[in-house]
Amino acid sequence: MPDLSGKVAIVTGCASGIGAATLKRLIADGARILGTDIDAAAGAALCEEAGARFAVQDVSDRALWNGVVREAIEAFGRLDILVNNAGIVTGASIGDVDDDTWDRVIAVNLTGTMAGCRAAIAAMKDNPGGASGAIINIASTTAMAPLPTDVGYSASKGAVRVMSKSVATWCAQQGYAIRCNTVIPGATETGILNAAEEVTPGLKAAVAATSPMKRLADPAETAAAIAFLASDECPFMTGAEMLVDGGALSIHPGF
């Protein structure tokens, strides 16, 4: 298991799914955590149970990000890891998406991720001992194989994938030991997928069938990849994409 002893992390969207699994995994690996979520009740309960600190956060509110980072530093003295996990789906195709729906998914999934990267880098470059840290942005296989039924989610996750490379290379050029990588989960048993299933009945079975493993991922399987990228075991890995998709994007769709 990766050793995260002494490291401090912020995990957004921590109340359920991949976020909850990641928070628990990073704590098990030795990290101290500030978990955030827009769902105050569920987020606070999860963090209390897991032994993490909690803050209510709508990641799309850029004005809140500096305060969240400051809370982590005031509580723990530094910031080493940011997991930009919070995200939403819309279930709206290009044929029926309205402006408010489009603006909201871009604000949460893309702008919220950018604002988190910006605030985290500002803190990480001033860490005791020098600029260092790991940012892990959560995209989706829709960043490579978009859903016709959700133009906003697909577009936002595709943008997160490319933005992460820009963040990674900029940090490297500045001489900062701050890495930024992307985890690309496939179909995972989460609240987001359950919400999408309500909009598109049969979606879970269909996406599970796209993987040669013929199943959905457990959130803990994605959390394990995140923990690796958060650790010091991959210091030369930045701007990379880690697929956790059960082979779904590795096989011809005809097979």
From TrEMBL:
Q: Which GO terms describe its molecular function?
A: oxidoreductase activity
Recorded hits in InterPro entries, A to Z, give: NAD(P)-bd_dom_sf, Sc_DH/Rdtase_CS, SDR_fam
Protein keywords? Oxidoreductase
State the family it belongs to. Belongs to the short-chain dehydrogenases/reductases (SDR) family.
Q: Which PANTHER family match?
A: DEHYDROGENASES, SHORT CHAIN, OXIDOREDUCTASE UCPA
The protein, known as = SDR family oxidoreductase
Query: Which species does this protein come from?
Result: Parerythrobacter jejuensis
